[in-house]
């Protein structure tokens, strides 16, 4: 079986969705009638918000629909709403990537990182970076 860039990219995003589902499962599982994570832990909400923001910003860049505003999007709310948004957003990334052709994945995209200037990367590299950054944020949440 020949593996191509489309398959690798789709598998990477499927892994991201699976890992985020695992995070949600572990944060919401109940132990003797109590939630595994207290919804009153603001640092968990902040880290989830940062994870959601990172994935959303990269998704905008990948789709060339980036809002050039230097403001970081803030995801607020109860931990259960943030976790639900995380799974939905990761599913949207997988759905989007699943439709991309090999040529579109290889296409170089220009985007801005406020304070650092313009960058040029292929969509595949951007997707790979996105999943890596989200993995880093998941690690921070798990270590909290």
Automatic annotation (TrEMBL):
Keyword tRNA processing attached: no
GO molecular function terms attached to this record: metal ion binding
Assigned keywords, A-Z: Metal-binding
Chain sites annotated for binding a divalent metal cation: 137
Matching Pfam families: DinB
Keyword Metal-binding: yes
Domain of life according to the entry: Bacteria
Family statement: Belongs to the DinB family.
Name of the protein: Uncharacterized damage-inducible protein DinB (Forms a four-helix bundle)
């Amino acid at each position: 079986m020949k593996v191509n860039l489309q398959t690798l990219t789709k598998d990477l995003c499927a892994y991201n969705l699976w890992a985020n589902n695992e995070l949600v499962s572990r944060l919401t599982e109940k132990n003797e009638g109590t939630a595994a994570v207290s919804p009153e832990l603001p640092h968990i909400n902040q880290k989830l918000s940062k994870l959601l923001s990172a994935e959303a910003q990269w998704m905008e860049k990948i789709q060339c629909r980036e809002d050039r505003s230097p403001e970081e999007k803030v995801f607020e709310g109860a931990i259960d709403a943030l976790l639900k948004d995380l799974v939905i957003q990761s599913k949207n990334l997988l759905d989007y990537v699943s439709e991309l052709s090999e040529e579109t994945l290889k296409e170089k995209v220009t985007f801005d990182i406020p304070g650092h200037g313009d960058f040029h990367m292929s969509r595949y590299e951007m997707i790979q970076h996105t999943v890596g950054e989200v993995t880093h944020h998941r690690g921070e949440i798990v270590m909290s």
